[in-house]
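hi!! sorry for the late reply, been swamped w classes. u asked for the two structures so here they r. pasted raw, havent cleaned anything up. first the sequence of the first protein and right below it the tokens
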Amino acid sequence: MRALALEYRAEAGGKLKRWLDRLMMVCSGLAALIQGMCMNAVLSTQPDAMADILSLTGFLSGLGLVAVYLLMACCWVRWWLGEATVPLARTWCWIWWLVSPLIFVVLLLFNLPLWERCWGLLIGKLVVLMAAVAACLQVWGLWRGNPLLLLIFTQAFVAMIFLCGCIGMYLWILVDKLNIYQSGVSQTAQVFILIGTLTRNSAPSRNRIPA
């Protein structure tokens, strides 16, 4: 639906164009919401993934991801469109910057073991420290009003939080359900695929044109 709205917007009249804008906005929000809900199911330790997708934590995860996307979008709009959008975009940057950490703290309390595992490793502590530095630089960027630096620091903060989750999940594809060893094929199959790949890549091409 987003693709349809974007494709037909240039050819649409004024009234239809407004409806297509609304359609694209709603579908974009739903896409981000569903991504966050599915991400919560992966990180959850509950046995029923579908029930966890439809739970309060799943809904909060979806809202959190929507808030993060909106924060990055406001940063990008400020940087790309310039002075004409600065007052409104700056206000929304502050709003979404306050909303996204608040939701993150609530979700952290719901998934505390994941973050405790991250904090228990040296690399986890380093990444958490880098996330804290990025968050402080975000405030500095908001205060100084530099849109490019704010966009960079926001993306750095999101990347550090993502790395924290990966470190806390290490060895698990689905937390407490499936680890990387259980999800892999047998050693015999891996060796067979490796030999086949190496043989295929090293074989001379019959269609090669002579110099």
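now the second protein. again sequence first, tokens right under
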Amino acid sequence: MLIRELNLADAGALRNLRALVDAGGTLGSESERLRALTPEGIAQQLRPPYETFGAFVEEELIGSAALYLFPAEPFIPDDEPWSAIAGVIVHPYARKQGIGRKLVEMCLNRIQELGAHGVSLVVNIPNPPAMALYESLGFKLGEAKKGAYLHNGQRYDEVTMRMRFASLSSTGSESP
């Protein structure tokens, strides 16, 4: 398996993978999902401020994860740079092989290289495998939003998860 940063030449493969993984409509609100599948939505995920990584077996894209850095996490009372991970998806036949973990770990390594003090993500629930993965990597549960999005007449919840990296704060003491 090869993991590398995706570029605009990978847009078609990313769109196809996203459409396949989202066949059940579990990747967010309908408007978010539809926007993410447009050529503009795919291209946006492949340009700064996003960095999107893809996992390939031979020439086939079987997983992806994106990150982006923002100046300050709006829910954290400081001005430290934070990052977000979004769009972690793995082809159904390639699940339970550690591909999602490798993609998220690559994002976490890159986020730390960029100097972020923490990372947040949103999990659409119920999604026990994703929750278990993120918790095993050190993410902590944050805010839950009941009925955050509607799909096929059913409301789904989402939860925000965060991880703060051990770093020196402006006072010189180590942060948890």
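hope this helps!! also noticed smth abt the second:
The two ends are 34 Å apart (CA to CA).
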